[in-house]
Amino acid sequence: MKRQAVTDSEWDHLIVLDACRYDTFESVYRDYVDGDLEKRESLGSATPEWAAKTFQDDHDITYFSANPFINGLGIPLDEMEWGASFDSSWTSTDHIATIHDVWDEVWDDDLGTVLPADVNQYVRNHWDEVQSNERTVVHYMQPHAPFIAHGTGRKVNTIRKSFEEAKAEGHDQGTNGGILSPLIDPVKPHIERFLEQSELAMKVGMLVELDPSSVFDVGTDGTRETLERYYEDNLREGFEAAATLADDLEGTVVITSDHGEAFGEQGIWEHHVETPIPALIEVPWLVVDEVH
User: Known InterPro entries for this protein (predicted)?
Assistant: First the structure.
């Protein structure tokens, strides 16, 4: 299996479907596009790790980002409130020429995510840049949770708010912890790592974002089957928008993902940094030939 090698591959427009695992992508993509599909190995099992390992040099890329971890605020990963578990000083603005903070402009507070249609509208509002720049990336949040039809993104909302606070306070997150910060900061990474390694905590982390009515689906079909079905629904939401946009793009269009999503494989749920299991690092690489 080839490594993903985003920056060394040939493309004019790269569409990133966040947290999209290869097998689910393979099962649905023919409903939206035709093309040459490969399985590739992502460089990371979560967005911060993927970004830091993928964009290491200076890249003349225009990046439309619905994911707050790739932002134009100039905040290193190791200073982000929710990036502490990946110890890297990588900063988006040091490596990517132009970043549009779509996550900041069109975030849906009720759902706790950026809707695919809103990403498309934002990109179309900046169409002159898309046409004039040699390389553009459009990064959708789907199929990443929350599952649009079945819940709200409480955790992702919290992440987004932490970035808003950093932006308002001049990017200095080191002063946000209050009087207990000197006590909490040294142990915070250990707490995060414990939670990331607890299968029960990981599973609960997915379930808490579901609507209460989802308990009936979970009770009838089981946790994994229900989450996988909701996840596919989310992928289809994102794919429909991505295919619509791809149909209007000129040049080589590639659809890929930053990492996958786990549903109990090897005791892992969701996705976490430095967890290189197949469900998280096997991602699609599709060169689009035709949109249906």
Answer: Alkaline_phosphatase_core_sf
Burial of 187 (0-12, 13-18, 19+ CB in 10 A): exposed
Q: What is the pTM of this model?
A: 0.86
For residues 149 and 230, the answer to whether their CB atoms sit within 8 Å is yes
Count the domains in the chain. 1
**265 φψ region: left (φ > 0), alpha (ψ -120 to 50), beta (else):** beta
DSSP for 78-104 reads: GGSTT-TTS-----GGGTEEEEEEHHH
Domain of 232? Answer: 2-291
pLDDT tens for residues 259-291? 999 999 999 999 999 999 999 999 999 999 999
| Cα-based distances in Å from 106 to 115, 116, 130 | 8, 10, 18
Q: Where are the beta strands (DSSP E) in 128-188?
A: 136-140
pLDDT digits (tens, 9 = 90+) for 57-91: 999 999 999 999 999 999 888 887 665 467 899 99
Mean pLDDT of the chain: 86
Round the CA-based radius of gyration of the chain to a whole number and report it.
18
Whole-angstrom distance, CA of residue 19 vs CA of residue 42: 11
Tokens of 143: 């199929």
The span from the CA of 14 to the CA of 85, in Å, is 27
Beta pairing class for 59-65 and 253-256: unpaired
Q: What is the CATH number of the domain that holds 285?
A: 3.40.720
